[in-house]
Amino acid sequence: MKNGALITTSGLVKQYPVGRGHFTALRDIDLIIERGEFTGLVGPSGSGKTTLLNIIGALDFPTSGSAVVLGTDTTKLTHKTAARLRTEHIGFIFQTYNLLPVYTVFENVELPLLLLGMDQGRRKQAVMDSLEWVGLTDKAKSRPAQLSGGESQRVAVARAMVKRPGLVLADEPTANLDVENSHNILKMMVKLNKELETTFLFATHDQKVIDYVRRKITLIDGKVAEDIQTTPKSQ
Amino acid sequence: MTRFLLKGLLRDKNRSLFPIVIVTLGVMVSVLMYTFMLGVIDDMIRSNAKLDTGHVKVMSRAFSEIAQQLPNDLALSGVRGIISGLENNHPEMEWVPRIRFAGLLDIPDENGETRAQGPVIGVAADLLGKDSKEIERLNIETAVIRGRLPENPGEIVISDEFASNLGVEIGEQATLISATSTGSMALQNFRLVGTVKFGVGVLDRNMMIADISDAQYTLDMEDGASEILGFFPNLVYDEIEADRVADSFNEGVENPEDDFSPLMFTLRQQQGLGEYLDMTYLRIWIILGSFFFVMSMVLWNAGLMSGIRRFGEIGVRLAIGESKAHVYSSLLIESILVGIAGSMIGTAIGLGFSYYLQEVGWDISGMMEGTNMVMADVMRARITPESYYIGFFPGLFATFLGSAISGIAVFRRRTAQLFKELEA
Ligand SMILES: Nc1ncnc2c1ncn2[C@@H]1O[C@H](COP(=O)(O)OP(=O)(O)OP(=O)(O)O)[C@@H](O)[C@H]1O
Ligand SMILES: [Mg+2]
């Protein structure tokens, strides 16, 4: 899988049943995303960005077509194998932070490693490294309720990154952040992208995010309307 | 991972404390209801045993067949011998003779002419014996309305209502007209020293209570009795033991076909009490069953609610890569832990209350004032071995079932859908 395709979708169609008929959220998506990309999916609300991310992340299945992620055809996965693909290779960042409120920052970030069955020593090291990336080592023992929105989102990023996944799928990661925090997080992601060669795929409306990406795919009505390389305005 | 899940369980009161409290309450009430109902049955059995059936009862074969007619011509004889035999074989039990008889009670005027007269049902027991517990057993002391208990030969008490109907006063004479065991007429004067009321219809209508020696003399039943009652220690009926005692006694009877041969019957074998008890137990189980059902619905709903509340958490865990089966089994394990904890605490508290009710009882005589119910002025519970685990059915099972079913909702939803809900 050299420096080649990390994600390949071909003829991807997603239809949702609506009443008697159905609504087509994605039509014929053919995309290749390569390892190490820092790419934004943009487009108006309802254009299918989240749907596409969910399919790539094996949280949802396409109606037809295929999505090959890290060499695995996600349309052929069972719940169990899909879960394993996510555990081992994919980090999710959600529009809302979705931290588990009963657990500390440390424990929230630790969860993906527990699922990987990593031993305690390595786990602790990895969690602390990850919290260092996002500048939150001093908040390790805090509960999510004690964090600001920006801090929470940074924890979510740490959680997505802690296992050093090949792919991070981020759905509107800055929607709830102020300008400064948005830039901090995006800068950190760029850094991780460079240092670890992590592939990032964003779904976003946010111009701040768009300013950072190197490739911009525009979806309109479930179709790829534009797919261009851009020069990041911010770094 | 287990530690991780346990931490969540312990820290989130909605997940641990509240469900445990609900389960605890439900189980506690179940246990208490169960032991209390057993206590009520016990009370019923005890009253019946004391007044009438004993825990076991010896009658002659022929008497037993028509016992309702009080056929004292068929009564037991050689009672002292039978009792001493019984006392030898079962020294832990108490054996007492009783005579029940029917007749007329006649109240004479100053000329000896009949002033009032009425049919009477008589019970004769050892009232005067120094060590006799019959007064206590028959609860006569508390039942006295006017006057006092018989203290000397020739003294009787009668139902208060009966006394009013006859217009007879304390201290007056009353003549019993009945039939002797040999079939001739019995006539005997007694002195009325008191009136009683038991709060039980039949007993309060027209009963007289006399000392057994007086009855033996009057009815020509020297060393005879209608029946010999046997009581277990502390008046606790033990069904298995009763069967054993009766069987061994009946095996020892030389001539079982003979009309006058003594035969022993257990409480259950008398007057359809067996079927009555079975019916009562059935009713208890129906009540408990319905209660358990309601309990289960409540617990199940609690499980369902907490499952729904946790869609968000579950969605995140799935997205991070936990498998659905793992999430589901962790929900079930949590529910088992909650169920076990709640059931154990609930059972402990329920048994605690039950124990208090068993040993001390709940004195409702204050509430019963004026109604004169002597049978149960202290309500008691009874703890049986079943009481220790009966609460686990609604507690553990319903909690588990609630989680199992609410968990299925998690399974059936597409993962992406869980997200939509958690993002909302
Ligand atoms: N479960 C569903 N059933 C029916 N229609 C759905 C379902 N989920 C999404 N859709 C529809 O599919 C289309 C694409 O939805 P999607 O969530 O992918 O949009 P989006 O590009 O992420 O929008 P936004 O920018 O507002 O987040 C929308 O029109 C939406 O109404
Ligand atoms: Mg979206």
3D architecture notes:
- The complex is a heterodimer of chains A (235) and B (424).
- Chain A contains 7 helices and 10 strands.
- Chain A is α/β, with parallel strands linked by helices and 235 residues long.
- Chain A has a domain of 156 residues: Rossmann fold.
- In chain A, the strands form 2 sheets. A 6-stranded mixed β-sheet of chain A has the order 6-7-8-3-9-10, sandwiched between helices. In chain A, strands 2-1-4-5 form a 4-stranded antiparallel β-sheet, covered by helices on one side.
- Chain A is globular and about 50 Å long.
- About 1% of the residues of chain B have low confidence.
- In chain B, 51% of the residues lie in helices and 20% in strands.
- Chain B has 2 domains: 195 residues, no CATH class; 176 residues, no CATH class.
- The structure holds adenosine-5'-triphosphate and magnesium ion.
- Adenosine-5'-triphosphate binds next to β1, β2 and α1 of chain A.
Keywords:
heterodimer, A: 235 residues, alpha/beta, Rossmann fold, 6-stranded mixed beta sheet, 34% helix, globular, B: 424 residues, alpha+beta, two-stranded antiparallel sheet, 15 helices, 51% helix, 20% strand, binds adenosine-5'-triphosphate
Specify the biggest β-sheet of chain B.
6 strands, mixed, barrel
**Major β-sheet profile of chain A:** 6 strands, mixed
Ions and ligands: adenosine-5'-triphosphate, magnesium ion
Q: Number of folding domains of chain B?
A: 2
Quick synopsis:
The complex is a heterodimer of chains A (235) and B (424). Chain A is an alpha/beta fold and 235 residues long.
Topology:
The complex is a heterodimer of chains A (235) and B (424).
Chain A: E1 5-18, E2 21-34, E3 38-42, H1 49-56, E4 64-69, E5 72-73, H2 79-89, E6 90-93, H3 105-116, H4 120-133, H5 149-161, E7 167-171, H6 179-196, E8 199-203, H7 207-210, E9 215-220, E10 223-229
Helix pairs in contact in A: 3-4, 3-5, 4-5, 5-6
Chain B: H1 2-11, H2 17-53, E1 56-60, H3 61-65, E2 76-77, H4 79-89, E3 94-108, E4 114-125, H5 134-137, H6 140-143, E5 144-147, E6 155-159, H7 160-166, E7 173-179, E8 185-196, H8 201-205, E9 207-211, H9 212-218, E10 224-225, E11 227-231, H10 239-251, E12 262-266, H11 273-309, H12 311-320, H13 324-359, E13 362-363, E14 378-379, H14 392-412, H15 415-423
Parallel strand pairs in B: 4-9, 6-8
Antiparallel strand pairs in B: 1-11, 1-12, 2-10, 3-4, 3-7, 3-11, 5-8, 6-9, 7-8, 13-14
Helix pairs in contact in B: 2-11, 2-13, 2-14, 11-14, 12-15, 13-14
The structure holds adenosine-5'-triphosphate and magnesium ion.
